[in-house]
Structure formats: C-alpha cells, structure tokens
Amino acid sequence: MFYETLAIAGRKKETEANQRIARIAAHLQLSNLQMEESSALRRAECRAKGGSPGFKVAILGAAGGIGQPLAMLMKMNPLVSVLHLYDVVNSPGVTADLSHMDTGAVVRGFLGQQQLESALTGMDLVIIPAGVPRKPGMTRDDLFNINAGIVKTLCEGVAKSCPNAIVNLISNPVNSTVPIAAEVFKKAGTYDPKRLLGVTTLDVVRANTFVAEVLGLDPREVNVPVVGGHAGVTILPLLSQVKPPSSFTPEETEYLTNRIQNGGTEVVEAKAGAGSATLSMAYAAVKFADACLRGLRGDAGIVECAFVASQVTELPFFATEVRLGRTGAEEVFQLGPLNEYERFGLEKAKKELAGSIQKGVAFINK
Ligand SMILES: NC(=O)c1ccc[n+]([C@@H]2O[C@H](COP(=O)([O-])OP(=O)(O)OC[C@H]3O[C@@H](n4cnc5c(N)ncnc54)[C@H](O)[C@@H]3O)[C@@H](O)[C@H]2O)c1
User: PROSITE patterns of this UniProt entry (predicted)?
Assistant: First the structure.
C-alpha cells in the first residue's frame, strides 16, 4: 500500500514535471523538440495559461535588423497577448531570448516556410519587415527583385491562414509591395483594402523630429502629415499643415522637405553597408501597430498616415492620414489645402508613384 502510494505520487510528479518542461519549451516550437499535437501542452492551453487578454500578432522577418527590436517592443506592448516570431533563420534564438522578458505576451518562434501556416493561424495583426535592406548607392526600387517574391509568398500565407488579419507591410519598396500584396489577396479572394496598410510612419517620425528641431519644440508636440508614398520624391511632407500651426521660410521648406525625403539614405550612408534604418523603424512600426491595435479594440479618433488603397488622387494607392478602427483603415482622409510648393511636389510624387504601383501589379499578373 505504502509503495503503491509512493509510486502514484512519483508518477504524478513526473507528469507534472513533463508538463512544466513542455510549457517552458513551448515558445520554441521547434521540430527537434518533437512538440506533438497530442502533447499535454497544446497551443490553446499554453495561450490560456500564459497569455494576458489581448491581440495575437505575428512578425514575419522577426530575426532581422528591424524584426528583433520590433519583436522586443511588441513583447512589451500590453495590448498583445500572443506574439509569433517567424523567419527563415535565427527565429528560435530571438524567441528564446525574448521569452524571458516578464511581460504578458506569450512569445513563440517559427522557422522556415513549413512553419509559416502555424505562425499565421489565428493572428489579428501581421507585421512584415521581411526582405533585404538597402546598401549605399541603392534606391528602394533596387530591392524589388528580391523583396517582391518574399512579400508574395508571405501574403499567400496570410490569405490562406489568417485572411481577416490586418497587415502592416514594411518591406521595401513599399510603393510596389503594397500593390503586390493587394494582387495576391485579390487572386485568393480575400482582399479587403481596409486591412492592407503600407507602413510610412517612419517618414512622419522623421518629419516630426526634423521640424521640431527647426522650430525649437519638443518633437512629441509636433505632428507633420506626410503623404504620397515611401521613396524619394514620393515622400511629401505637408509643412503647411504642421501642428502646431507654424510657418517656414522658403529655405527652411526646401531644407526640411529634402531631409525628410532623404532621411533613409542618411542612415544607409552612415551605416556604410551594414543596412538601413532598423531601430527608428522598429520604433515607428510599433507606433503604427499600436495604433492599429487600439483601432481594433474600438478606440475612437485613431489617425495615422499610411499607404493604402485610395481615391484621394487618380492613383489606386496613396499615403494620407487614415482613421483606424475595428476593421482597419475605415476612413481615408483627403489631402486638405496645399500650397504651391506642395502642389508641385504632389505632381512629381504622383508621376513616380504611378510607375512603382504598376510595377507591383505587373509582377503578379505577368
Ligand atoms: N517601410 C519603411 O519605412 C522601412 C524602413 C526601413 C527598412 N525597410 C525595409 O524593411 C526590410 C527589412 O529591413 P531589415 O533592415 O530588417 O533587413 P534585415 O536583412 O536585417 O532583416 C530581414 C529579415 O528578413 C528575413 N527574411 C528574408 N526572407 C524571408 C522570408 N521569405 N520569410 C521570412 N523572413 C525572411 C531575413 O532572414 C532577415 O532576418 C527591407 O526591405 C527594408 O528596405 C522599410
């Protein structure tokens, strides 16, 4: 009797220990851990035990220069309950590292295309910084050949596994990758223009910073709408609409417009071959993702700039301020009154944008 009780207690302890080990290892989601569906720790259980109430977010390209700080900042976001980190390299290490942070979100890693479906299933928001960045002397368009294919594959995964998720697309050239994603979703029959958002927040973040410097203000008090697209002359800061209302000399306008349009190149050259903006981009991506999540939660008055399907100009996509709500970009705002300098800039921006959009559409329909 005594030995039988001991044996039962021993087995119970062993089961508990196995369950504990499985729970600790769950975030890694690696095939070499042999995590079977029949395991005591199914994904749903893990989510219920570890997760705080909130949204499920996936980052595709999570081990990259942007992906890693972005993943860390999203792990710190109280609106996130589950964070899936997908990449074709190094996602287990990034996941193990971030999983030790004592924040509410449960973090899990996914490695390689065969795990893309698991990474995406059930997600509310998918953030895509996957792809190659610029080196000195390159334009964003030079990245097209590699990144177009990556974005196509990942968006096919989204269409299959989480067709109702909001997509934040960061991979460059955004002016072409957003049209690519739209065509992929159209082909799959899942396209909802409200849910596809090209991330241009870094242009706004830079504009706020540079304008604040010129005005001698705290950048947190400044808001500059930046419209058009996300490359060179397609980046059009509307300095006439800066808040708080401010005026600029022609020299200041020229300096600020050039610096905002070339902010990315400034970083690429300073990094001298080691990539493009990653830390400020991760900050900007989280600012935007957080706004999307607050919109999904039903908060009122969430307005950010983004590159979206649009009827503001004759082009099918254009970046302007949009209102984010439960279903994505629920309202796309008009440009508002432009001064002569901005009207001239708009014409230049539209000309270049038209070609970039067409290039993206043609890539899918070739
Ligand atoms: N929208 C913006 O404002 C903005 C700003 C800066 C950079 N970017 C762009 O973001 C992208 C990423 O930049 P980065 O500096 O993080 O580059 P990076 O090379 O450091 O990281 C990219 C990551 O993507 C991963 N990856 C490649 N192919 C993949 C695939 N098929 N599936 C999943 N992951 C894949 C890589 O393994 C890598 O970890 C680039 O295209 C860059 O131009 C956009």
Answer: MDH (PS00068)
CA of 63 to the centre of ligand 1 (A): 9
61 within ligand 1 shell (Cβ under 6 A): yes
pLDDT 10s digits, 101-155? 999 999 999 999 999 999 999 999 999 999 999 889 998 888 999 999 999 999 9
Residue closest via CA to ligand 1's atom 42 equals 133
CATH topology for the 201-365 domain: L-2-Hydroxyisocaproate Dehydrogenase; Chain A, domain 2 (3.90.110)
pLDDT for position 31: 39
Give me ligand 1 centre to Cα 253, in Å.
32
- The Å distance, Cα 99 to ligand 1 centre, comes to 22
**Topology adopted by domain 55-198:** Rossmann fold (3.40.50)
Does the beta carbon of 198 sit less than 6 angstroms from any atom of ligand 1? Answer: no
Residue nearest ligand 1's atom 14 by CA: 65
CA–CA gap between residue 322 and residue 281 (Å, rounded): 20
Out of 281, 287, 307, give the residue to mutate to test ligand 1, the one with the largest number of ligand atoms within 8 Å of its CB.
281
56 pLDDT above the threshold of 60:
yes
Residue 361 pLDDT level (bands cut at 50, 70, 90): very high
Say if residue 77's pLDDT is above 80: yes
CA of 312 to the centre of ligand 1 (A): 29
Asked if 75 contacts 107 with a C-beta cutoff of 8 angstroms, the reply is: yes
Residue 254 has pLDDT above 80, yes or no: yes
Q: Where are the domains of the chain?
A: 2-38, 55-198, 201-365
Q: Show the beta-strand stretches assigned E in the chain.
A: 55-60, 80-87, 106-111, 125-128, 166-169, 196-198, 226-228, 235-237, 302-309, 317-325, 328-332
What pLDDT, in 10s, does the model give residues 328-359? 999 999 999 999 999 999 999 999 999 999 99
For the chain, the distance separating the N- and C-terminal CA atoms, rounded to the nearest angstrom, is 76
